[in-house]
Amino acid sequence: MKQLPPLSDPSFGFFASPFGECCIVFTNDGICALTFPESRESAYADLEHRFPKTSFKQNDEKASQFARQIFEEKGKPQLNPAGTEFQLAVWDALLQIPAGQTTTYARIAMQINRPKAVRAVGTAIGANPIGFLIPCHRVIRTDGGLGGFRWGLERKKMMLEYEKE
DNA sequence: ATAAAGGCCACCC
DNA sequence: GGGTGGCCTTTAT
Hints:
Blueprint (H helix, E strand, L loop, with lengths): L10 E7 L2 E8 L2 E6 L4 H11 L6 E2 L1 H13 L12 H11 L7 E2 H7 L6 H9 L12 E2 L12 H10 L3
Parallel strand pairs: 1-4, 5-6
Antiparallel strand pairs: 1-2, 2-3
Helix pairs in contact: 4-5
The protein binds a DNA duplex (13 and 13 nucleotides) through α4, α5 and β6.
């Protein structure tokens, strides 16, 4: 992973999403993470692991504002994910998949001009820090299988169902 | 440095 | 349906 630039006003908060409890992490530069943790404890642990030596302020009010923007107004808040060049390229490709549609791991690999890196694409997608907003749930297998999902396949199905029509 | 582990795919049986 | 080998990147030794 590349070294992170200093974070401006690092904050996090929890809210209830249509897909379960969410932890959102953000700074003045945008959203860094949106996850569906098993528990608050695991959310804290994840935070410390991914941003060592950084102290975050809890701000559930701002988190709720984001929630409203995302799930009620269907808005697109600014994103600020941290990753390698390869990962950023993959995540960028994900952002181009329209809601309600799906693509495959192989097609993403084509799109970023690394047609043979299909497996690595799967790994990079699995490392997506911003669930739902970076729509990793819209990627399925070439053979039609659902593929995997870091936060549980049931949740992946839920998201696809939510976006249908 | 090197090994091991992945949200895969094409190919075989 | 299931198993194998190849492919590429990341992470943990």
